[in-house]
């Protein structure tokens, strides 16, 4: 479980490491551009229900802490979804990553049938080339 330390708050915001890694990239990009925005998320199941939103500004101290020593492989799709929400008036909404875990439909290879038509070849003439 990763954590965001925001401003002078002593209580961190807990976010799963993989989600935090993606969120960090999008947040850092926006802050590097000098942009202010909000980040919203639903509370985890082990906390009282609801959601939270924080206002991020380049002048407010922000620190990301990860439990895992190695950075996870990032999903381009998830980054794009988070970045798209960052550009909206509602700010970044932390959404879960979408995995395609449904059954995969495997089809038998189709048999290819090719009919060859008879072609009549007609010799019209001779092609001559010049040589130096």
Gist of the model:
20% of the residues lie in helices and 20% in strands.
Tell me the layout of helices and strands:
Layout: E1 2-6, E2 13-15, H1 17-32, E3 37-42, E4 51-56, E5 62-65, H2 76-86, E6 92-93
Parallel strand pairs: 3-6
Antiparallel strand pairs: 1-2, 1-5, 3-4
Helix pairs in contact: 1-2
The total strand number stands at: 6
What percent of residues adopt helix (DSSP H or I)?
Answer: 10-25%
Overall structural class, as computed from helix and strand content, comes to alpha+beta
Output the helix-strand order: EEHEEEHE
**What fraction of the residues are assigned to beta strands by DSSP?**
15-25%
User: What average pLDDT do the residues reach?
Assistant: 77
Key descriptive features of the protein:
globular, 132 residues, single chain
Task: Write up what this structure looks like.
With 132 residues, this protein is of the alpha+beta class. It is 20% helix and 20% strand. The strands form two sheets. The chain has a three-stranded antiparallel sheet. The protein has a three-stranded mixed sheet with strand order 4-3-6. Helix 1 (17-32) crosses helix 2. It is globular and about 30 Å long. Mean pLDDT is 77; it is low at 100-117 and 121-129.
